[in-house]
Amino acid sequence: MKVLTEASGSLSSGFIINSIKQAGFQAVGSDITEINAGSIVCDDYIQFLPTSDDNLWLDVKYKLIKHQVEVVLPCLDDMLLDWTQQVWLKECNIALIASPASTLSIFLDKWKAYQFFEQNDVRTPRTSLQQVYRLLKPRRGRGGKGIIETTDPFEMHDYISQQKIHGVEYTIDVLCDKSGQPLYILPRKRLGVIAGKSTQGELVNNRQIINEVERICRLIHFVGPVNFQCIENELGVFFIEINPRLASGMALSFAATNNWVEQIINHIVKDYPIDIQPVKWGMKMFRSYQELYVR
Fold first, then answer.
1. Which domain of life is it from (predicted)?
2. What is the pLDDT of residue 194?
3. Whose CB has fewer CB within 10 Å in the chain, the N or C terminal residue?
4. Residue 237 near residue 230, CB atoms below 8 Å
């Protein structure tokens, strides 16, 4: 089975590519550059047009069919919602591993996510579309890109300002089946972060966080891998955002259970039940980057 993954030229793409291959599938990398680390280690590779190109999705359709891609495993926020609008995927028997568009439209927008948290009594930092707080974030975006702290006047178009919460940072890796049932909920303490990417982490059996994530999953329909971001301090647990997609930091949760890529693809495509394994709580991850050389 040929599985497409995105942003294969990024520094953290190796984990996702390896997970696809270890599951016995063929990894089809993709990015906007002709050659990168992903293009070298993947079984096949597709160079896509930039997301700003008007012909992007015509190009994507042509190349997925040409390369006989059977499954799309999105991991790039810029294209995630658009993938769900491609009705031709089903016509071409290409499976998409993604949450419903109604879910994505909320959590790919930090202001809508804040409104969801407020409406459902999920503790979250105070947030505004006006420049009320020092911490400024793009409404849409990933990692730490575009985030600044300032009291200087700032053009707030497509930005939010947010109360800054201090405490212990957690990412919670979640795997939901196609009915939306969370089968794994694994809080991961972030011990090291570079450019918004987790470089060190530890799995912690924090029941307060697990119970609240389970409650949120009952409120809205997620499918496949999802990661929640929260901060815990003496006042409680504050949820910052939810990323409804596969994330590179999930490597630790895979290592502590099983290969979620294999599990969710077989579940969605072949209707297999997801195999739940005991969690190796306390496992830690330390990430390094690897160089590749070609001539």
1. Bacteria
2. 61
3. C
4. yes
Measured distance CA(187)–CA(132) in Å, rounded: 31
Taking only the tens place, the pLDDT of each residue in 166-177 is 999 999 999 999
Q: What are the residues facing 284 on neighbouring strands? A: 202
- Other Cβ atoms less than 10 A from the Cβ of 198: the count is 24
Rounded to 5 degrees, what angle do the CA atoms 277, 104, 265 make?
35
Question: What is the residue whose two structure tokens read 């994330």?
Answer: 247
* Backbone dihedral region for residue 7 (phi beyond 0: left; psi -120 to 50: alpha; all else: beta): left
How much is the average pLDDT of 190-205?
77
C-alpha dist (Å) from residue 232 to 122, 163, 168, 197: 13, 14, 5, 19
> CA–CA separation, 78 vs 64, rounded Å?
18
Phi, psi values for residue 203, rounded to 5°: -80, 130
Domains in the chain with CATH codes: 2-96 (3.40.50.20), 165-286 (3.30.470.20)
The CA-CA-CA angle for residues 228, 229, 234, to 5°, reads: 125
Task: Supply 130's token pair.
Answer: 């006006």
Tokens of 19: 């997970």
- 17: its two tokens: 């590519």
Do the Cβ atoms of 183 and 64 come closer than 8 Å?
Answer: no
What SS3 class is residue 227?
strand
| pLDDT, tens digit, 9 for 90 and up, residues 117-168 | 999 999 999 999 999 999 999 999 876 788 999 999 999 999 999 999 999 9
pLDDT tens digits along 53-89: 999 999 999 999 999 999 999 999 999 999 999 999 9
Q: What percent of the chain is predicted at pLDDT more than 70? A: 97
Highest mean pLDDT among 38-42, 64-68, 248-252: 64-68
- Residue 220 tokens, joined: 């809205």
